[in-house]
Structures are given as C-alpha cells and as structure tokens.
TrEMBL record:
GO terms for molecular function: metallocarboxypeptidase activity; zinc ion binding. It comes from the Bacteria. This is M14 family metallocarboxypeptidase. Gene3D superfamilies: Zn peptidases. InterPro entries: Peptidase_M14 (IPR000834). Belongs to the peptidase M14 family.
Length: 301
C-alpha cells in the first residue's frame, strides 16, 4: 500500500510533514463535543487549564479535573484522547466524570485529563500537527507539546500516584491510514497486521501486575467482549500473557501510562468498529475499566 505523501523508502522532511498537515480536514468539533461537556461539569470538579496548543491556544485549551482532594487518600490519574482519533477514550473519560466519579469522592483523589490531544480529536488522527505521535513522546524534552504539558501537570501535583489508567482504542483506520502513514513518514515498508476484535489491556513489561489486569478484564467482560488472541497467540504482534492482556515496555517506548511511576498502570484498548459493539458500549467499557481499576486500588490501601 503506497501513501500519497512522500517518496517510498525516504523518511519525511519538513516539506512532507507540512504537506501532510495541509492535507488534514476538520471532521468534528472539540468545542462542541468536549469543551461543552467540560463546561457543564465546571461546578462539580476543580478544573485546571494546564496548557493550550500553540497552533491555536484559544481553540485548543487543555483541561484536567480534580475532585476534592483529601490528605491520606490514594491518588489516581485517568487520561483520554492521547490519540485524538480514539473517541471512546475521550467520551468515556467524560462519561466517568458525569456519572461515576462522585462514587469515589472521599475515597480516591482523582485527576482526570479527558482529551490530551484536542487538535487530533478534531482531525480524527493519531498524530499531532507536527506528525508526531504523542503516545511515543512521554520522554524528557518531549517533541510533542501535548505530552510535555501532561507530564508537567502530573509533576505539579507533588504526589505519588497509586494508579494510572490510559484510555485508548484500536480501530480499522489503524490499518487503512495510520500504519501506512507511519511507514511513509519513517521511510519504511508498510507491513499489514490484523485488528483484534474486542477489548484488551496493555500492561507494563517491567511491572505487569497480573492480578490487577485480571480484575479489570473481569469487570469489562460484563460490558463488552474481550479480544481473543490470533492464530499465533498474539494481539497486535505481542504475546497474550493472560486473557485479554498484553504487555509493553511502557517507559522505554515513551507511553503515557509510564509517566506517574504508579504501581498500578494499564492502557485500555476497545474496538469501536466491531460488528458486535456500539459506540455507547465502547464508552461504557472505558467507564467500567476506570471503575474497576479504582476499586482494585482501594483494595490495596
């Protein structure tokens, strides 16, 4: 599969990245679908604007919500929309704030960043405006301002988080757009892969926490189906270590779930293009995963 930008085998330079940026079209509204829901929740949480995208600071403010923090309670971070095109990560985080976050007041100190990459949300794309993947950029001197802003927010809290759950999706467009674009950007051959049908989790190779992952999967399985392994016993090229769970080296890859150093970390992945799931079901699966992760955290404290 050839990609319409660049020359096969040659990594993109500034001209190709600009051509890619100029080929993007707005497909939905951050203000209409995200900021409007945040505005409706302003009275229920302590909201902090922790930055804004330099492309258009007025259009793309970055917001995070805190409940009423109390000394001595465990702290948990929930993030969505690191990949802006992954809709249920954003809408699931907002659904959690609207319907379930109140259940944890006085039990867990919550910090929720529902849409880390708002430009990508509008474009329905994986990358930021500079053709950088924010979820490979949670590193020192990050090349992605979205990632740098979130890391600064977490550091400013001055606490040790016990939990971080990062909400994602795996979509058919991974194969039709994003992986071909990645291969073109990096001057590599595109190698097709399959898309798992169902929900799965990505734990940390260096800190897998299998009982925690199992607890979350069991809760989500009541809401939606869990992705089976492929014929090689893998999901997206990684060995399935238990039902619905694979592991990545989170810190080495610069993934969002590595930023707190929490004992309990996981990345959710739902499949919104499945014929067996609806958008509402995917959002509900994200909420179920967040609640299960928080419930498990409470058993450890």
């Amino acid at each position: 599969m050839s990609y319409p930008i660049g020359t096969p085998g040659i990594p993109w330079g500034d001209a190709e990245k600009l051509a890619w940026f100029n080929s993007r079209d707005v497909k939905r509204s951050y203000a209409g679908e995200v900021l409007s829901r945040i505005d409706a929740l302003k009275a229920q949480f302590n909201w902090q604007q922790y930055g804004a995208l330099s492309l258009d600071a007025a259009k793309f403010p970055l917001w995070a919500a805190k409940n009423n923090w109390q000394p001595g309670l465990p702290c948990a971070l929930v993030t969505g929309g690191v990949h802006g095109y992954e809709t249920s990560g954003v809408q699931g985080a907002l659904d959690f704030l609207e319907h379930r976050a109140k259940d944890y007041q006085g039990r867990v100190n919550l910090l929720v960043a529902p849409c880390v990459s708002p430009w990508a949300y509008e474009m329905i794309h994986r990358w930021n405006p500079k053709a950088v993947d924010p979820n490979r950029s949670f590193v020192e001197n990050s090349p992605a301002e979205e990632s740098a802003a979130l890391m600064a927010l977490v550091a400013d809290q001055g606490v040790q988080f016990g939990l971080h759950i990062d909400l994602h999706e795996t979509t058919d467009s991974d194969e039709t757009e994003f992986r071909p674009a990645l291969a073109a950007r990096d001057g590599k051959d595109y190698e097709p892969d399959g898309i798992p049908d169902g929900f799965y989790l990505v734990g940390d190779t260096e800190n897998p926490q299998p009982e925690f992952q199992r607890f979350v999967i069991a809760a989500v399985e009541k809401v939606t189906h869990i992705a089976p392994p492929d014929s090689d016993g893998k999901i997206i090229g990684s060995e399935v270590v238990q039902h619905g769970v694979i592991n990545y080296p989170l810190h080495k890859l610069g993934l969002c779930a590595s930023i707190t150093g929490a004992k309990l970390t996981t990345t959710t992945e739902v499949y919104p293009d499945s014929p067996k799931a609806t958008a509402e079901e995917c959002n509900a699966a994200q909420v179920a995963a967040v609640c299960a992760a928080l419930d498990y955290l409470l058993t450890q404290n």
